[in-house]
Amino acid sequence: MATSSSGQRTNQTGTAPNPKLRVWIGPRSVSGPLRHMVARPIVCGPQPNAPTKSKTRVLAKAARLLRDTEQLTAYGMTGGRPWLDLPALLAATQRTVSELHEKKQLVGHLERAGVRLVRGHGPARFIDSHHLIIGDRTLRAERLIIACGGHARRLAFPGSELTMTHSDVWRLRRLPRSLAIVGAAATGVQLASIFAAFGSRVTLLEVAPRIVPPAGSAS
């Protein structure tokens, strides 16, 4: 173990367990301990949307690169741990997503395939298997697909105004010294691993008896 310029201990070998990541599972009250362990909680829902997934992959790659530097001495190389410029990294994630969308040209591909896109028209409901009502319009088609996307839902509990969702991560301007992630499904575990690699002290909280429950299991 070594001490960084910020006073935080870092793993130089890549072999020891990460001291910056702690996991609490099972129902319990954590309001008291959390006041001393973390600065700001992040509440993670089941699955983010596609652009968020792409952004998270960029963060995960940056985390892997940082972890790789911890093993340099084992291969006869010397050098300090790189300094993470979080705003620059988040800007890079946005560029990557924009470039991917440009390359895919998804809307153009769908329209050339004969798919009619109806976007931004508010609530929709089926009246039978081939008719859909959107506002005051009724659409008919052999096959109808509703792609409504998703967004994080803020939980209602005392102090919830101090929390973030995974969508808020992209507006961070500096790396938090500590944070708690509520929810240890795939998204929560991935963000916990990423921020621990970046140097934050992370506490992962999960009410279920295990982290990353199998797909389709009851939560």
Textual characterization of the structure:
The protein has 219 residues and is an alpha/beta fold. It has 2 domains: 2-103 and 152-206, no CATH class; 105-150, no CATH class. The chain has 5 helices and 10 strands, in the order βββαβαααβββββαβ. Strands 3-10-9-4-8 form a 5-stranded parallel beta sheet, covered by helices on one side. Strands 5-6-7 form a 3-stranded antiparallel beta sheet, with no helix packed on it. Strands 1-2 form a two-stranded antiparallel ribbon. Strand 5 and strand 6 form a beta hairpin.
State the main characteristics.
alpha/beta; 2 domains; 5-stranded parallel sheet; 3-stranded antiparallel sheet; 5 helices
List the helices and strands and how they pair.
Elements: E1 2-3, E2 9-10, E3 21-25, H1 31-37, E4 40-43, H2 50-69, H3 86-104, H4 106-112, E5 124-128, E6 131-134, E7 137-140, E8 164-165, E9 178-182, H5 186-198, E10 201-206
Short description:
The chain is of the alpha/beta class and 219 residues long. The protein has two domains: 2-103 and 152-206, no CATH class; 105-150, no CATH class.
- Order of strands, main sheet, comes to 3-10-9-4-8
Distance from first to last alpha carbon: 37 Å
Please estimate the helix content: 25-40%
- Give unreliable regions as ranges: 1-16, 31-39
Strand runs, count: 10
Domain module tally: 2
Oligomer: single chain
**How many separate helices?**
5
Average per-residue pLDDT, rounded, comes to 76
Largest sheet: 5 strands, parallel
Shape: extended
Helix-strand pattern, N to C? EEEHEHHHEEEEEHE
Indicate the proportion of strand residues. Answer: 15-25%
Radius of gyration of CA atoms, rounded to a whole number: 22 Å
What class, by secondary structure content? alpha/beta
